Amino acid sequence: MCLLNPVLLFEVLSPSTRDYDSGAKREHYQQIPTLRHLLLIHQSERQVQHVFRGPEGAWEVREFTGGGIALADFAGELLLEDLYRLDE
């Protein structure tokens, strides 16, 4: 599958590939000209890194362990409890 002009990407970090996904793979993603938001979602703990292009075009990072993530290019916010909701 090929994505054309993505603005937002989600990457779930498994323990075995976390270093690669949050390192070299993240750097590859940041080369995509249209990408504005990358969410690195930790699988084994409730933690999300929001990597985004700031107002000057430089990449910035915010970490979340609770609450919600407001994405400037989208209405509303993404709640961590929805990302980590377990089906009962």
Structure write-up:
By secondary structure, the chain is of the alpha+beta class. It has one domain. Helices cover about 15% and strands about 35% of the residues. It has three helices and six strands, in the order βααβββββα. It has a four-stranded mixed β-sheet with strand order 1-2-3-4. Strands 5-6 form a two-stranded antiparallel ribbon. The longest helix has 6 residues.
In short:
The chain has helices at 18-22, 24-29, 80-83; strands at residues 8-13, 37-42, 48-53, 59-64, 68-70, 77-79. With 88 residues, it is an alpha+beta fold.
Keywords:
single chain; two-stranded antiparallel ribbon; alpha+beta; globular; 17% helix; 88 residues
Describe how the helices and strands are arranged.
Layout: E1 8-13, H1 18-22, H2 24-29, E2 37-42, E3 48-53, E4 59-64, E5 68-70, E6 77-79, H3 80-83
Parallel strand pairs: 1-2
Antiparallel strand pairs: 2-3, 3-4, 5-6
What's the number of helices? 3
Write down how many β-strands occur, each being a DSSP E stretch of 2 or more residues. Answer: 6
Q: What low-confidence regions span 5 or more consecutive residues with pLDDT below 50?
A: none
Question: Could you say which structural class the secondary elements and strand pairing correspond to?
Answer: alpha+beta
Rg result:
13 Å
What's the order of the H and E elements?
A: EHHEEEEEH
